[in-house]
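Key result, reporting period 2: structure in, sequence out.
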C-alpha cells in the first residue's frame, strides 16, 4: 500500500493499476473527475458555445476590492510591456472564450448548481454625527415596513479557469499557476464567487440599470463585502485567493506602496500555514508575497527606527498578504498606536472559517484585529461551510459600527459596500458525496471494541470490502481522550504494516514543532491513522483521506459538518464518515442524525447510503436549545476529564481503556522503568508525547 503520498495537496497523481485489476473507489484513489458537487456532467451547452474572435467586447478589468487598473497603471516601460503581453494573451484566448450569458441563462445554471446569491443594499454611507438621528428614524421606518433590501443576483458563472483570461485579464503568471496546479473546472463556489469578486462592479451596474436607471446614473458603483457559505472541500481557498492576488497585482502596478495590504485570518496554525502555502503556489512569479505570521514578527512601527520601541531591532514583516491566527496577528500588531500606519494600509480582510472566528472563543481577538484596520475602503470576505444567522447579523452590525466610528473621526463619510451573501447547496449541511453512518455502541467499552474490530485487517463490510481504509482521522472530545486512545491503539497495527509508526496523535498541547512534524508525516503518508481533537476539524485539507471516525460524537451540528468534511474533498466519492454514540449521547445525537438525513436527501434518492431509519429518528429525543448550547460549550460531561467520573455515582464511566486499573498501573510502572533506563532525562514525558515515544519491547 502506498496510500499516503496522496495526502499531499499535489494534484499530479500517477496512474496506477491494482494487482487484482479491480479499481477500488476511495478519495485517495485518484483525482476527482469533476470537483463539482451538483449538476455533474449536465453543464449547459451555453458554456461550451464559442465566441467569435473579436465579436464580443471584453469586460473591463475589475477587481473585488476596488484596486482596479487606473491611468497610472500604464506608466513606465515595464507596465506597458505587461499591458501588451496581456493584450496578446487576450487575443489568443478570445477564440476559446464562451459567449456572454443572458441573465436567464445564468439564473438557470446557478440554480442547477444550487447556488443562491443575494445582494443587500442597506445604507451605502455611514452617517456622520449630524445625520445619525435622521438615519435612525429612517431605519426604524424601513424595518417596520418590512422593506428588506435583498435582491437576488445572477452573475454569469465562471465555468472553467481558462475563461478567466479573456474575461478579467488575469496576470499571465497567475493563470499559469492555476493551470500548473492542475485546476481546470471550477467548483460551485468558485463558479459564482470568481464571477462576483472579479466582476462586481460590472455586474452591479447591470443590475441597477435594469432596476433603476436614474439611481444608477447618480450613484457611484461600489465593490461588495461577501459572505460565502459553501460545502467543506469545495475550494473556498481558491475562490478568495485568486481575486485577492489579482487585486494586488493590479494595485502593485499603480502604486509604489510596499507593505501588507491584505490579511487572511484562520482559527488554527495548521490552517493558516496551509492557506499561506496554497497562496504562495498561486502567487508564484506575480511578485505578490504571502507570509504566514509567526511568533516574533511585527507589522512595523510608525516611529523612526531609533525610537525606543521593543521591536526596534526586528525588521517589519515583508509581505503583501499576511495569513495568521487572530492571536498571532494581535501579537504582530503590538501596540496599535505604533503600528497605526501599517494597519491603515490594509485594504482587504478575509476571515476563513468566519463562524468560528466570530464565535465567543475567538471573537474578541478577531474583532480587535478588524476594528484596528482603519482604511475607509476596507473590503471584507467571510467564508465557511457553516454560518449561523447570528454570525451574519454580527458581521453586518460590525461593518456598520466600524463605518460610523470612522466617519466620526474622519471628516469624509465612509462608504459601506453592498453586502452579498452567497450560499452553495443546503446551508449548514454535510457533503453529500460521502457515506454517513451512525453506530450505536452503548458504552465506552463498546465503542473501543467496535473501533478495534474496525481496525482489524480482516474486518469487512457486507460487500466483503474493508469498511474503512487508511488514511483516516479519528476525532475525540478532549486532548486527554485523544492521548488515551492513541496509547490504547498503539499496538493494533501489525508490525508488518509499520506498527506504531503508522498511528499518531495531534492536539494543541503539543509544541508547534511537534504539531508541524505530525502534520508533515501524515501528509507524506508515514502516518496512516491520526487521532485528534476538533483542532483539525476546520479547513485542513488532506486530499486523500478515506474516512473520518467520530470516536466521540461531535458536540454540535457544525462540528459534525466540518469534521466529516475532511473526507470527500473537491467532489471525491467513496469517503466514509462513521460516528459512534453511546447511551450518554442519546439525548443529543438527533442533531447529527438530522444532518446526515439532510445531506443524503441533498444527494437524492440514488445517492449514498444512510443507516438512519425513520423509526430511529422518531425515537431519538430532540434536544432543547439550552441543551444544545450546553453541549457545544462543555461536551459530554463524563468525557471531560481523563478519569471520566460519573457526576452522580463518582464511578469512572467514560475512560478509554479495555484494561483494569490494576493492570494499567503495572504496565505503566514497567514502561516507565524501561523508558528511564533508555533516556533518564526524558522518561517523565514518555507517555505523553507521541513524538518522543519510541515504543517498548514486549
Ligand atoms: N477547481 C478545482 N478543481 C480541483 N480541485 C480543486 C479545485 N478547487 C479546489 N480544489 C482542491 O479541493 C481541495 C479543497 O479545497 P479547500 O481547502 O479550498 O476547500 P474549502 O472549501 O476551503 O474546505 P473547508 O470548508 O473544509 O475549509 C483542495 O485540495 C484543493 O486543491
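The corresponding designed sequence is given below.
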Amino acid at each position: 500500500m502506498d496510500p499516503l503520498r496522496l495526502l499531499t495537496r499535489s494534484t499530479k497523481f500517477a496512474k496506477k493499476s491494482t494487482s487484482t485489476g479491480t479499481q477500488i473507489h476511495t478519495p485517495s484513489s485518484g483525482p476527482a473527475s469533476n470537483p463539482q458537487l451538483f449538476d455533474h456532467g449536465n453543464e449547459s451547452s451555453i458554456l461550451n458555445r464559442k465566441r467569435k474572435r473579436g465579436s464580443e467586447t471584453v469586460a473591463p478589468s475589475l477587481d473585488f476590492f476596488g484596486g482596479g487598473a487606473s491611468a497610472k497603471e500604464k506608466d513606465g516601460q515595464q507596465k506597458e510591456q505587461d499591458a501588451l503581453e496581456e493584450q496578446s494573451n487576450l487575443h489568443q484566448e478570445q477564440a476559446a472564450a464562451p459567449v456572454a450569458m443572458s441573465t436567464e441563462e445564468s439564473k438557470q445554471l446557478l440554480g442547477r448548481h444550487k447556488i443562491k446569491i443575494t445582494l443587500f443594499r442597506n445604507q451605502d454611507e455611514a452617517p456622520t454625527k449630524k445625520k445619525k438621528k435622521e438615519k435612525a428614524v429612517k431605519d426604524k421606518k424601513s424595518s417596520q415596513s418590512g422593506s428588506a433590501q435583498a435582491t437576488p443576483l445572477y452573475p454569469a458563472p465562471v465555468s472553467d479557469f481558462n475563461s478567466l483570461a479573456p474575461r478579467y485579464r488575469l496576470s499571465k503568471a497567475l493563470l499559469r499557476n492555476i493551470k500548473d496546479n492542475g485546476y481546470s473546472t471550477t467548483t460551485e463556489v468558485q463558479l459564482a464567487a470568481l464571477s462576483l469578486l472579479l466582476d462586481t462592479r460590472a455586474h452591479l451596474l447591470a443590475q441597477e440599470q435594469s432596476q433603476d436607471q436614474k439611481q444608477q446614473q447618480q450613484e457611484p458603483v461600489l465593490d461588495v463585502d461577501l459572505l460565502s457559505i459553501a460545502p467543506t472541500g469545495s475550494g473556498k481557498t481558491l475562490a478568495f485567493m485568486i481575486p485577492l492576488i489579482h487585486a494586488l497585482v493590479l494595485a502593485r502596478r499603480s502604486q509604489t506602496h510596499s507593505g501588507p495590504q491584505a490579511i487572511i485570518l484562520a482559527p488554527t496554525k495548521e490552517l493558516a500555514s496551509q492557506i499561506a502555502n496554497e497562496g504562495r503556489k498561486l502567487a508564484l512569479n506575480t511578485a505578490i508575497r504571502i507570509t504566514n505570521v509567526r511568533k516574533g514578527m511585527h507589522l512595523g512601527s510608525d516611529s523612526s527606527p531609533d525610537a525606543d520601541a521593543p521591536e526596534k531591532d526586528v525588521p517589519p514583516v515583508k509581505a503583501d498578504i499576511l495569513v495568521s491566527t487572530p492571536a498571532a496577528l494581535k501579537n504582530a500588531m503590538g501596540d496599535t498606536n505604533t503600528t497605526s500606519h501599517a494597519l491603515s494600509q490594509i485594504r482587504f480582510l478575509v476571515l476563513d472559517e468566519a463562524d468560528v472566528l466570530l464565535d465567543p472563543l475567538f471573537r474578541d481577538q478577531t474583532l480587535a484585529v478588524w476594528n484596528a484596520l482603519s482604511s475607509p475602503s476596507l473590503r471584507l470576505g467571510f467564508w465557511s461551510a457553516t454560518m449561523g444567522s447570528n454570525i451574519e447579523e454580527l458581521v453586518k452590525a460590525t461593518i456598520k459600527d466600524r463605518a460610523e466610528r470612522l466617519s466620526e473621526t474622519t471628516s469624509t463619510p465612509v462608504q459601506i459596500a453592498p453586502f452579498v451573501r452567497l450560499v452553495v447547496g443546503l446551508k449548514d449541511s454535510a457533503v453529500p458525496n460521502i457515506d454517513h453512518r451512525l453506530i450505536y455502541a452503548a458504552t465506552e467499552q463498546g465503542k473501543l471494541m467496535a473501533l478495534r474490530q474496525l481496525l482489524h485487517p480482516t474486518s469487512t463490510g457486507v460487500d466483503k470490502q474493508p469498511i474503512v481504509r487508511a488514511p483516516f482521522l479519528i476525532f475525540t472530545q478532549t486532548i486527554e481522550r485523544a492521548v488515551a486512545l492513541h496509547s490504547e491503539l498503539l499496538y493494533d497495527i501489525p508490525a508488518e504494516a509499520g506498527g506504531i509508526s503508522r498511528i499518531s496523535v495531534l492536539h494543541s498541547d503539543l509544541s508547534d514543532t511537534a504539531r508541524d512534524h505530525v502534520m508533515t508525516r501524515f501528509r507524506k503518508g508515514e502516518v496512516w491513522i491520526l487521532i485528534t481533537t476538533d483542532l483539525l476539524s476546520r479547513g485542513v485539507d488532506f486530499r486523500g483521506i478515506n474516512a473520518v471516525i467520530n470516536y466521540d460524537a461531535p458536540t454540535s451540528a457544525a462540528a459534525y459538518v466540518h469534521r466529516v468534511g475532511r473526507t470527500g474533498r473537491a467532489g471525491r466519492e467513496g469517503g466514509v464518515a462513521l460516528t459512534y454514540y453511546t447511551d450518554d449521547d442519546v439525548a443529543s445525537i438527533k442533531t447529527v442524525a438530522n444532518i446526515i438525513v439532510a445531506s443524503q436527501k441533498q444527494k437524492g434518492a440514488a445517492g449514498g447510503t444512510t443507516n438512519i431509519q425513520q423509526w430511529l429518528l422518531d425515537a431519538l429525543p430532540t434536544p432543547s436549545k439550552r441543551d444544545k448550547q450546553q453541549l457545544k460549550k462543555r461536551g459530554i460531561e463524563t468525557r471531560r476529564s481523563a478519569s471520566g467520573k460519573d457526576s452522580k455515582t463518582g464511578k469512572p464511566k467514560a475512560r478509554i481503556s479495555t484494561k483494569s486499573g490494576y493492570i494499567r498501573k503495572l504496565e505503566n510502572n514497567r514502561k516507565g522503568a524501561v523508558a528511564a533506563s533508555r533516556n533518564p532525562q526524558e522518561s517523565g514525558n514518555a507517555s505523553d508525547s507521541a513524538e518522543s515515544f519510541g515504543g517498548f519491547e514486549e
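Residues 73 and 200 are 20 Å apart (CA to CA). Residues 9, 35, 183, 185-187, 190, 232-238, 385, 539, 541, 543, 565, 569-570 surround adenosine-5'-triphosphate (CB under 6 Å). This case is discussed further under Risks and Mitigation.
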